[in-house]
Amino acid sequence: MITSRTWVLMAISFGVIAAFFVLREHWTHVLGLAPYLLLMACPLMHLFHGHSGHEGHHHHDREDRKP
């Protein structure tokens, strides 16, 4: 009997193989989109990252200063 883990591994394997063949045939188109993907990464990182990472360092400093 095939378990759900096997189905997931088969789906991931199929996706990797399909992505390989699609990228192989359309590599120039993908490279043409690379600058736009890089520009889109900046606002998306700011949107999803938030500011909790910056505040986390300050909280540790304040806790260390307590007597």
Estimate what percentage of residues fall within beta strands. Answer: under 5%
- Number of DSSP strand runs: 0
Spans of 5+ residues with little confidence (pLDDT < 50)?
none
Radius of gyration: 22 Å
For the termini, the CA-CA separation is 62 Å
Q: Which descriptor suits the 3D outline?
A: flat
Transmembrane segments: 6-23, 30-48
Pfam families: DUF2933 (PF11666)
Keywords: Membrane, Transmembrane, Transmembrane helix
Protein name: DUF2933 domain-containing protein
Summarize the structure.
The chain is an all-alpha fold. It has helices at 4-25, 27-49, 52-65.
Structure explained in plain terms:
This protein has 67 residues and is mainly α. The chain is built from three helices and no strands. The longest helix is centred in the middle third of the chain and has 23 residues, at 27-49. The termini are far apart.
